[in-house]
Amino acid sequence: MNALLSRCFLVTYTPLVWTRHGREASAQLGIAPFVDGSIRREPDLEHEFPSISCLCRKDKFAPRLQPTDVVGYITRKARYDDAIRSHHRLTAVLKVIHTCGSHLDAAEWYRASGLTLPSNCMVEGNPPQPLNASHRKHKFGHRSDDSVLFLWNHEYEQRAMNHSRFVICQAMFCDLSWDSPDFDETQIQEAFGRTVGTQNPGQVDSRRFMKLLELVGVELPPSGP
User: Which of 6, 36, 81, 88 has its Cβ near the most Cβ atoms within 10 Å?
Assistant: First the structure.
């Protein structure tokens, strides 16, 4: 599919190494540094078929996605790996291939395909990540790890009940390692000619989206979007 015919979005997320706890978890547990840092990876970029749900943005993003849409994921801006300057990392470019009305429907799709469930699929038998495998960036105060894990996961359960859309994707590019390409506002301005809102993302011009990929050195495969 020609990228110029696809709707494109650019989205930020908070990676594991955003915090000291997350950096320690990455080093000690061998977790890729730029996975999402919550106890429910949102998005789950590690899966063979990455997934996007409403656990993070509720109904503000996932319900708008349709098959063939293209989503670029970038980390929040920070001085990763003790870099001199703050920067983003481009970690994934996903193409939406299927949308589900509920997490149960998504679980059926993955199981029918002989696949494990992604971390953000909120169904029975699919537990959250351990707290020590997260960035521990939460709002539940100074409680025991078990209490924090329970409360954090319960909040996600409520969000999944209230906003059940689930989006299944194909990864056209994914690099969650320290080798993932870094860039800053200079490349964003050159590609888009302006600052782009990525927290509550709107559609971006597909030609300019491809220009950003070119500037950071990411080439999608010929079968890509």
Answer: 36
Report in angstroms the alpha-carbon separations of 30 from 27, 33, 57, 117. Answer: 6, 9, 28, 21
Tell me the per-residue pLDDT of 59-111, one tens digit each, with 9 for 90 and over: 999 999 999 999 999 999 999 987 788 999 999 999 999 999 999 999 999 99
Q: How many other CB atoms sit within 10 Å of the CB of residue 99? A: 19
Contacts of 171 (CB under 8 A, 6+ apart): 45, 49, 50, 92, 93, 94
**CB burial class (10 A; 0-12, 13-18, 19+) of residue 12?**
middle
Check if the beta carbon of residue 39 is closer than 8 Å to that of residue 129. Answer: yes
Token match 């293209």: residue? 70
| Residue 97 φ then ψ, to 5° | -115, -20
Residue 111 is encoded by which pair of tokens?
Answer: 């199981």
Angle at 58 between CA 57 and CA 59, to 5 degrees: 105
Mean pLDDT, rounded, of the chain: 93
Rounded to two decimals, what is the model's pTM? 0.93
